[in-house]
Amino acid sequence: MQIIRNFQNINKELSGTVLTLGNFDGIHLGHQTILNDIKEIAKSYNAKSALLTFEPHPIKIIKPERAIDIRLQSLEGKLRFLRKENLVDVVFLVGFNQKLADLKAEDFVKTILVDQLKIKHLAIGYDFAFGKNREGNIELLEILSRKYSFGITKIEAKNDVSNQIYSSSKIRELIKSGEIKLANLMLGRLYRISGVVVSGQKIARNLGFPTANLIPKANLIKPKYGVYKALVDRQYKAIVNFGIRPTFKNNKPLFEVHIFEFNQDLYGKKITVELLDFIREERRFDSIEELQNQIKIDCQIANV
């Protein structure tokens, strides 16, 4: 997979792609189906399949007040997953800024898609909107495809087995409400958190349940405060508490990961934690003994 950031001098090998565009945050099963669709279309053109995506997320520029803790994946995570799953041949990475936000839809198509990328075919979701005031839609693109001589395919909504439309927004809602199992089904994989283990206050260790602590990453979505069944580095069963530990005072949100039957030193090492299921909400306990007893119950539920 090639990643292209500079569109000024696109060579012949990278021009004439079959392209889709969008944020593709999370690359859920709906996104994966779209990318598989454009691969099939690309074969008919003997061309490369391509994704044009934006960084930062456009909402950070357009509605910055809504941009806090919104992303399902970092850019690095998105690109890593696209490459690992071989979902697309080329990623065109567009730096999103106010100038681009103010660009009219036809100007975006003419300047970037036609003049710079020289696309052969555009495959776009049924509800995708772009350009200033979101004036660009599938109807306009069908007109522009005739004007600028590129093919166009409208991709209908992709639904899961319960007829729910795959949606990054829906997955965010599920994660925020603790419905991790449903979020995982829509993602087509386990929702994960990764980071470098940091030293904590040793509270959990003193309770008899040592933890590897991860600081939540800025701008990435945060799950509901609570206790989760989890898997660490895809092999170790674990239990995770995410929250502010209300039994103790003045705490910032933290992921506390207790790995079962594990005694290695993880400080300074990067780990990946995949959430499997929600066990209970975080709450304040009246005594340390009550908290210890509840953790034992939580561990019994998680370690099955």
Give the topology.
Elements: E1 2-4, E2 18-21, H1 29-45, E3 49-55, H2 59-62, H3 75-84, E4 90-95, H4 98-101, H5 105-116, E5 121-125, H6 138-148, E6 151-155, H7 168-176, H8 180-187, E7 192-196, H9 203-206, E8 212-214, E9 226-232, E10 236-243, E11 254-259, E12 270-281, H10 288-302
Parallel strand pairs: 1-4, 2-3, 2-5, 3-4, 5-6
Antiparallel strand pairs: 7-12, 8-11, 9-10, 9-12, 10-11
Tell the overall outline: elongated
State the oligomer. single chain
Per DSSP, what share of the residues sits in E-state strands of 2 or more residues? 15-25%
First-residue to last-residue Cα separation? 39 Å
Strand order of the largest sheet: 1-4-3-2-5-6
Number of helices: 10
Annotation, overall tally of beta strands: 12
How many structurally independent domains? 2
Rg is 22 Å
CATH architecture descriptor name of the largest domain? 3-Layer(aba) Sandwich
Q: According to CATH, what is the topology of the largest domain?
A: Rossmann fold
Which structural class matches the secondary elements?
Answer: alpha/beta
User: What is the CATH domain class of the largest domain?
Assistant: Alpha Beta
On the 0 to 100 scale, the average pLDDT is 89
CATH superfamily (homologous) name of the largest domain: HUPs
Order of helices and strands: EEHEHHEHHEHEHHEHEEEEEH
Taking the sheet with the most strands, its summary is: 6 strands, parallel
Helical content band: 25-40%
Stretches with pLDDT under 50, minimum 5 residues: none
